[in-house]
Amino acid sequence: MNLPAPYGASPAAMLRVARLDLTLLWRNRTSLFTVMGLPVLFTALLVPLRGERIDGTDGALLQGTGHLAFFLVFAVFMNLVTVFTARREDRTLKRLRGTALSDADILGGSVLTATALYAAQALGLLVLLGAAMGGRFPADPLLLAAGLAGGAVVFALLAFPVAAVTPTAELAGLTVLPIMFACMAGAGVMFPLDGLPGALREACRWLPLSPVVEIARTAYFGRDFAGGGGHPSVGLLEGWAECLRSFAVLAMWAGLGRAMAGRWFRWEPRRG
What we know:
Blueprint: H1 11-27, H2 29-44, E1 53-54, E2 57-58, H3 59-89, H4 92-96, H5 103-131, H6 141-164, H7 172-186, H8 198-204, H9 210-221, H10 236-242, H11 244-264
Antiparallel strand pairs: 1-2
Helix pairs in contact: 1-5, 2-3, 3-5, 3-6, 3-7, 3-9, 6-9, 6-11, 9-11
């Protein structure tokens, strides 16, 4: 099933779908906790790390910048997998296709909601890191925005094929758990990857969340977290140059997600 081209979407129609999504999210307490509650819980875990040195950096700031990437899993990935699976199985997607809304409006509205929720969480976390955790203004805000936006694109695209293989909305949480744990443990969110054996460290860098973490930390601290160890200071242009590999990995995952979404995504309930 081919996905619609984004240029076929109407901004006004997408906003109507986005408002519907927000209303339904508010009524579904389980989904609301996943999207909003879990990020708050992970943010609270930063408090005991303040002042502790990890890899030569304040622990709260190091993990906090990792959470800038990790929150994509909750607000974008898990959220969209649940939304698309639930709407497919209760035939809402099929009914919406019978309205004046285009396919791009229907899907784009949900992606818009998820992305807006994530943007609000990322902005709130940046304010918290600066105001309460002894942090700073990002050294390169443009690089940071580009990395987080690229991550949002990748995890939105990956949500389509994962929703396609998820039987019911109730099982969506189980379907995404392996990806969530892999990203949490292997993308450098909870601990630096520098201490891992070389082959394992290189494999972890190919996870879809790893390049977002590398870009976010490089942009925030103005130090090279995308290259080798030591994390030397980098200028604005040097930061972009060091993150080229990370952007290439994101582009690879975006292409793979788009191909899998076009092949597997379905509008009608699964049979059998």
